[in-house]
Amino acid sequence: MTARLIRGRLLSFKDAPKSIDDTGSYTYEEDGAVLMENGHIVAAGGYDAVKSQAPADAIETDHRPHLIMPGFIDAHIHFPQMQVIGSYAAALLEWLNNYTFVEEQRFSDAAHAARIATAYFDELVRHGTTTAVTYCSVHKTSADAFFTESHRRNMRMVAGKVMMDRNAPPGLLDTPQTGYDDTKAVIADWHGNGRQLVAITPRFAITSTPEQMEMAGTLMREHPDLHMQTHLSENKAEIEFTKELYPWAKDYTDVYERYGMLGPTSLFGHSIHLSEREADVMSETGSVAVFCPTSNLFLGSGLFDLKTLDERSKPVRIAVATDVGGGTNYSMLRTIDEGYKVLQLQGQRMTPLESFYRITLGNARALCLEDKIGALEPGREADIVVLNAAATPAMALKMEAVTKLTEELFLLQTLGDDRAIVETYIAGEPAKSTL
Ligand code: GUN
Ligand code: ZN
Prior knowledge:
Radius of gyration: 21 Å
Shape: globular
Distance between the termini: 20 Å
Low-confidence stretches: none
Helix content: 25-40%
Strand content: 15-25%
Structural class: alpha/beta
Number of helices: 15
Mean pLDDT: 98
Bound molecules: guanine, zinc ion
Number of strands: 16
Largest sheet: 9 strands, parallel
Oligomer: single chain
């Protein structure tokens, strides 16, 4: 594949920003460039230095004055919920039963799953998201449709066939054995196939029997390198129902703990209403709490106490995600904007540097994928987003008053959406302009 050189202002994080203007946490190049070849970043830095390393036939694209960053990472999203987004419901369990469990049944149909998979990746690319940790439906067909399309586009995805064997319509149930067998088959077909990664995906404690939870724990022991994703402590009624179903459990987290499901590659969507004991166990096991601000607000689930989890003596690792279709937007820019407001309501602050760290390197670290994605550094995969902070008339006007990088980032966060994404590069190839 021909090498590509892209020119613009480069921003890439090295570590979590510790203050509003922590210049040591990132690298910034006013006249920068990234050289990409064979899906990877070969060089990134000042334009002249990078240009001198480029082969003579490299294709050069000038994105000045736009900002070039690592592609955005969404740590929790449901691909079969593209037609659930924006469904009118009071709270989680009603929303699941009245809309989500109805819609997801359609994914037993391979043609439907394939159509939605195409639309899904189009939407991610349009919004600058280059990696998304995704729930498919219970049907193996949905996972096959998902990975077929992701592989075709050469995208770095993490996804799993949902395991669920109770408390949902019959068309949406597997069994402990078929859930295990189908997950095994998805792993055999897709894990490590190109850029695809499979996650073990028990939906949540309510929709799995103890027998299925055992099977999920078994799968994790058999495949310790895989991610595990599920939901935890999102909603008060959900927590109460879980306690009824698992009367022996100390708390909700204890259910997952007993089946051996906590650990550094385990992602727990929402994790809003955690006790000190639960937060301690999450911390000790390196488990990740996934903050889904638009979803938590839309479903009235609660306010994620990010700063307390992050700054307690035993900190909990945190990722950020859209949770579409409980979440209301595919954009990680819209997501950090709503996340900022969730913190505001609790008297907490999230700096612009922290927001952009979280949706790039921060999420890559939370997924234990920082050796592959999340930074503009040689050797990393060339998943890149190009941002225009003056993409709309309102943004352009505000941009006139912007004097520094952190203000530009905050403008992108506050007013930005898919219109601010000029280009999305997937493994070194332009993917948005070619949609
Ligand atoms: N808990 C179990 N399933 C789901 C889901 O699909 N969305 C959300 N937000 N919470 C869940
Ligand atoms: Zn979810």
